[in-house]
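Let's practice the habit of predicting before peeking. Look at the sequence and jot down your guess about where helices and strands might fall. Then scroll down.
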Amino acid sequence: MKFNLSIPYVALTAFVTSFSPSSAIAQSCDFSLGTDTAACFGESVTLYGPPDALSIVWQNGLTSLSIQADTAGTYWCSGIFPEIGANLVQNGNFSQGDVGFTTDFIPGTGGGFGLLSAEGTYAVTPDASSAHTAFYACGDHTGGGQMLVVNGSPDPDANIWSQTIAVVPNTNYAFSAWLASATPYFPAEMDFLVNGVSLGTPLLASANTCEWDQFYAVWNSGSSTAATISIINQQLASTGNDFALDDISFSTMCGFTDSINVTMLPPAPVIDLGPDAAICPGTSVALTPQFVPANWPYTSLTYTWNTGAHTPSVNAFQPGMYTVTVEGPCVAATASVTFIEDTCATLLRMPNVFSPNGDGVNDGFGPILTGDPVDFSMLIHNRWGQLVYSTTYAKSRWDGRVEGGLVPAGTYFWVVQYGSRMDDGSIVRDTKTGAVTLMGNP
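Done guessing? Here is the structure:
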């Protein structure tokens, strides 16, 4: 879920974010917290806000880059960004050279160490080492462009870079600039001001040469219609104190909010393959793990059987132990079942009398079995040879009716055909015939 925000009035003159944005380049306000997700029982998921935002606020008021979602619900995050293409600074990346800004420093005029041999001088160049033989070969912040390279001055409050920009009253503006050391000695300490008021704690350049650090702040114009931006170095050492500035921006801001639904899963299920059992030679038993409880919501699971199979179900063809491990989001369960060998031979006998009178005793006629027959069939005829009942299901019973009506009491003749499975898995077929007396019907 995504929607734009209007940028509220910020009463503070300026503030710096509590985390370091990874890029100075303004981005689209559109960001995503990701697709709806779920957390395992008793655990949480980490939700990340936009790393390039100037400020972040979550639905619970936290302003950190990430939060832990440990209860089910909808989580939302709002971010504020500099608008793309809204940089009001003229020539902030110095691509146009030495134009668009004022300074108390002077352009380098040369000397024994190169163009910036004298303190308090500057040059616009793509390579810091080209301006001074002791400077490191630093390139500009984004690569392939130009930057402002400075041999620092011991003069206090010397304005390195300044520009005045027209602004709209009561509007938030994002300020950004990048700073790097050209030499490792006495790194610059840069203060950034708007209309003479510092935007926050000065930025101390890294002692690691050519390592770009960013200053970010938000300034509210209040009643002002103009913003004079000034960059002043608080480092007054006459040795070292050599640095580069690049990608200075001052832009209006936009806001955006995205939300994500987090589901908390129930406790992880166990799996069951059923009770141990016997298996007949030449037969198979289908094995499918059953979840307990059965309503587990995830289906993206992997199955690993000790047979080497990776399918949700397998067929057991011989005695032994069968084990499966089921793994997936929030699931890691194992189950086993053991089959012993059974001859599965079929013993069949047929009763000779039944009484379908509804008393619950001997009401149906059919075979009495030990073991399951193969290819079973039973036909029953009356004394005139007419078929009164037939079935291929060994457990079905004739209830003394034909097409819903009771047949007369008397003698009826049956034929049963079936196969019996031997110990070696082969099937021996048999045919039995006989008569049964139906008692109790009219």
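How did you do? Residues 1-27 have pLDDT under 50 and may be disordered.
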